[in-house]
Amino acid sequence: MRLWVSLLPALAAASAIQQCRPSQARVRKEWGVLSTEEKTEYLDAVWCLRGLPATLPNDEYPGVRDRMDDFVATHINYTLNIHSDGLLLPWHRHFIYLYEKALQDECNYQGTLPYWNWTLYTTPTTLNPVFDGTSTSFSGNGLPIDKTNTTSLCPHNIPCPAPGTGGGCLYNGPFVNWTAHLGPFSISQVQPYGDLPPNTYAYNPRCLTRDFTPDWLPPLTSAANITSMLTAPDIKSFLTLMSPSTLGYVGAHEAGHAAVGANMLDTFASVQDPVFFLHHGMVDRVWTLWQDGDLKNRLWAVNGTGIVHDPPDAELVTLDTVMEFGVLSGGKRVGEVMSVVGGEYCYRYDY
User: Fold this and answer.
1) pLDDT of residue 9
2) Which residues form the Tyrosinase copper-binding domain (predicted)?
3) Rounded distance between C-alpha atoms, residue 193 and residue 163, angstroms
4) Least confident among 122-131, 191-200, 305-314
5) Which of 19, 119, 148, 201 is deepest in the core (most CB within 10 A)?
6) Residue 243: inside a domain, yes or no?
7) Residues in contact with 76: Cβ distance below 8 Å, sequence separation at least 6, in sequence order
8) What's the average model confidence in pLDDT over 35-53?
9) Which of 190, 6, 183 is closest to 84 using CA atoms?
């Protein structure tokens, strides 16, 4: 896979979008409102994807062992173009759609992609039906490990949270035996954000880990903070709260990753934790609700570049910027993914 974002000749994005009827739109729901049967069907489909062969060739990508790893490797490959910049929202919208579609088309899943509503269970995380460790959850925390000599780097815009309560392998729920195959990586490995880390696709099997740090959630993902996002006057203000591009600052997107911790804190390979897709379902939901608040001015709003942290010399994202998805899909113009009821998309969120 080649890391590449290019521009096509200018096209009228709005005219290319074919709208679906509202009555046709499939509903994405919060995990907690799903029935036991619906939750079980989703979890079974996730495990089904894990059991399917990869598309990427193993001789070139030795750490890619199954269909799930195709998604992990794709996210790794484009990490430096799709975080803390103008492509975070549009790229991940299509990425989670492709995952939903794979579950449906390849694993006969009849439902839609659920989401994790951060505002419903801010602390402690283990009360959340997403993480309560039951058979219809995504498993809970990792085993506690000694953090005596661990140094925590705190973001500039929030107080330093208390240390996480886990850090080790999962010990309950459906994903106890889930294996991470790629990484781990640290964003510090690639500063100032040039090339991917060495041995990017090496095979490194290990257990899935979590380190619940619930103090990350309230400062950035409370109902009041979501309201502030939804009333943001423009996309730049919205992104400042969702995922600021300034190095060392974090928003609601980063807080969700940090609250789960461990594998979810690996910017490159966080996809290895299946809860990644519920988290980004919430990111997409909040963006969708913000767009719906003023479609005329917000539906086509873009801001930032296609390089992490928006360096001043990088190309600005436009509706004609092409986003790449490797073996998962052909390239998509940003303008093709701006409406959840246009183009390939025909979905909405329950509330």
Assistant:
1) 35
2) 273-284
3) 27
4) 191-200
5) 201
6) yes
7) 182, 183, 185, 196, 200, 201, 268, 269
8) 98
9) 190
Structure tokens at 280: 């980004």
Whose tokens are 């969702």? That residue is 242
* CA distances in angstroms from 190 to 91, 103, 254, 268, 279, listed in the order given: 21, 32, 18, 11, 25
Phi, psi of 101 (to 5 degrees): -65, -40
Whole-number Å distance between alpha carbons of 217 and 292: 25
Is 115 contained in some domain?
Answer: yes
List all residues 6 or more positions away from 101 whose beta carbon is below 8 Å from its beta carbon.
none
Q: What is the mean pLDDT of residues 278-294?
A: 98
**Which CATH number covers residue 108?**
1.10.1280.10
Query: By C-alpha distance, which of 317, 338, 261 is closest to 81?
Result: 317
Instruction: Give yes or no for a contact between 198 and 246, defined as CB atoms under 8 angstroms apart.
Output: no
Of residues 152 and 210, more confidence is placed in 210
Residue whose structure tokens are 């183009």: 343
For residue 1, tell me if it sits in a domain.
no
First to last CA, the chain: 37
- pTM across the whole model: 0.94
Q: How far apart are CA 157 and CA 254, in angstroms?
A: 12
> Which range marks the domain in which residue 26 is found?
6-349
Q: Provide long-range contacts, Cβ within 8 A and 24+ apart, for 153-159.
A: 155/248, 155/249, 155/250, 155/254, 156/248, 156/249, 157/244, 157/249, 157/250, 158/216, 158/219, 158/220, 158/250, 159/219
For residue 14, the tally of other CB atoms under 10 A from its CB is 13
Query: Is residue 125 situated within a structural domain?
Result: yes
Question: Could you tell me the two tokens for 332?
Answer: 């998509």
What ranges in the chain are assigned the alpha helix state H?
13-16, 36-50, 67-78, 88-107, 217-221, 223-230, 235-242, 252-260, 276-292, 295-298
Distance CA 162, CA 144 (A): 14
3-state class (DSSP) for residue 77: helix
Domains of the chain: total: 1
Phi, psi angles (nearest 5°) of residue 115: -135, 160
| Confidence band, pLDDT 50/70/90 cuts, at residue 172 | very high
Strands (DSSP E) contained in the chain are: 6-7, 26-28, 142-144, 167-170, 179-180, 206-207, 321-323, 332-333, 347-349
